[in-house]
Design a protein that fits this description.
By secondary structure, the protein is α+β, with helices and mostly antiparallel strands. The chain is built from nine helices and four strands, in the order E-H-E-H-E-E-H-H-H-H-H-H-H. The structure holds glutathione.
Length: 223
């Protein structure tokens, strides 16, 4: 039975899982959850899939798992993929960057998305103090990442890992949210390399763009 992955094609978090699964050759069955209709907050979803009302969620037989990073680690261990690191040392470095990415990096792009796009859908103005704080945090983390990537092709070691995928996720929405990634040339070059050399990453970007731009257009929202 194929592993089920629940999510909305406009989600940068779903993109982390669908890309990693494609790279690892894991067969998945996608289950569409329309986040713009609030489907992840339906009682059945909260009860059976994720009480936090967030996607993606994975169902593999009796195993139900949410959080894209946890899902990707599960899948990588299941198939023995080096996306989780080729050596024990690499594995700890990959985990280090994945935890960092969740707490210190992605969250501020998500906050900006919620303010600049989520609130537009609800007819509310963005809160500039939140966006300003997010930009301060993004600039501090972006400078450290930019220095890290000055002489590296990947976040860890000399090959693609889940750390690259987790840290690249905010590039799913940056053209719409206008977070200041363009101030960091090594970061931008690394992201472009991923798009040029990892077909699943480029394909998932097209999917996110089509879904979000299509939904914005249908709602008559111009950014
Ligand atoms: N930390 C979670 C974040 C999940 C998340 O924020 N998912 C968003 C889509 S990108 C979502 O499902 N939002 C639905 C909602 O807030 O109602 C992960 O990495 O999986």
């Amino acid at each position: 039975m194929a592993i089920k992955i629940y999510g909305d094609p406009g989600s940068g978090s779903l993109r982390r899982v669908t890309s990693a699964a494609a790279i690892m050759g894991v067969d998945i069955e996608r289950v569409y959850v329309d986040l713009f209709k609030g489907e992840s907050h339906a009682p059945d979803f909260l009860k059976n899939l994720n009480p936090h009302g967030l996607t993606p969620v994975m169902v593999d037989g009796d195993v139900v798992l949410y959080e894209a990073s946890a899902i990707n680690i599960y899948l990588a261990e299941k198939v023995g993929s080096d996306l989780l690191g080729a050596t024990p040392q690499e594995r700890y470095e990959v985990l280090q960057w994945m935890f960092w990415s969740g707490e210190q990096w992605r969250v501020f792009s998500v906050l900006t998305f919620d303010e600049r796009i989520g609130k537009r859908f609800m007819g509310q103005p963005e809160d500039k103090t939140i966006v300003d704080l997010a930009f301060v945090k993004i600039r501090a983390a972006g400078a450290a990442l930019d220095a890290h990537l000055a002489d590296r092709r990947f976040i860890v070691g000399d090959h693609l890992t889940l750390a690259d995928i987790d840290i690249a996720a905010p590039f799913s929405q940056n053209e719409r949210t206008k977070v200041p990634f363009n101030e960091f040339p090594n970061l931008v070059a690394w992201q472009q390399r991923l798009l040029d050399t990892v077909p699943a990453w480029a394909a998932s970007k097209r999917e996110v763009d089509e879904r979000i731009d299509g939904t914005l257009n249908a709602a008559g929202i111009t950014l």
